[in-house]
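To fix ideas, we quote verbatim one protein's residues and fold tokens.
>
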Amino acid sequence: MEREEEMQPYLSVIIPAYNEAERIGKTLAAVYAYLTQQSFTWELLIVLDGCTDHTGDVVRAFAENKVNIRWINRQENRGKGYTVRQGIRAAKGEIRLFTDADNSTDMSHFDQMKPLFDRGESVIICSRDSKDAADARQSTPQPFHKRLMGDAGNLFIQAIAVPGIWDTQCGFKAFRAKAASDIFAVAQINGWLFDIEALALARYFGYKINILGANWVDEPHTHVTFSGYIKSLIEALKVRWNLWTGAYGRQHAALNETQPSRANQT
């Protein structure tokens, strides 16, 4: 067992979860079924974000007598961005993918990602918007007023932080280990709009962002409020400010300066 833990799996799948007792069992079953059919090595890592329901019990029951599943049960609620960041940094895979606990984007989308990673790409995301990828699909189109509000907000996000990407929030993104380390070591946004920062940082560090179309199945219990849209605009401004002021660069340089000293101690 110890030797298996020391081996680097090809793929780490990270699932952040906050009070997902009603949904996560079905998602874990679908993800595990996909992974066990693959020829590559893998691990499944669930990060519990200070849950107050029985999500932890569901995860423990599912993981019993199964291999390559581990979880982090953090007692304090810190937000989706913090939770994904913790999972990405704790993961061991050469490729590190996070996906939502509602399973809106099926794991089979990784079939399209793998050939791109195998040829050397470092950052690949899925999009629900046909302006990003012609084959993007949504099982239930959003009402017109939500599409209008979302597009208006996204145009602002593009202008401020991530130009050219129409869907920054699809919860199915994957990173090569080096890119994940660069991006998530300096990321700061703890809330659910951390995606904007991650994509902006990918470009800041010179990584090309490859976009694939998602076949997105809407989960009826997942809703974005008007205040959520407003918050996304504020978070985008924070990202732009950090880029303008060089905050990310200074933090990255400081981390790089500490690495040699740590290496000398091993």
Summary: Residues 261-266 have pLDDT under 50 and may be disordered. The domain at 2-140+164-223 is CATH 3.90.550.10 (Spore Coat Polysaccharide Biosynthesis Protein SpsA; Chain A).
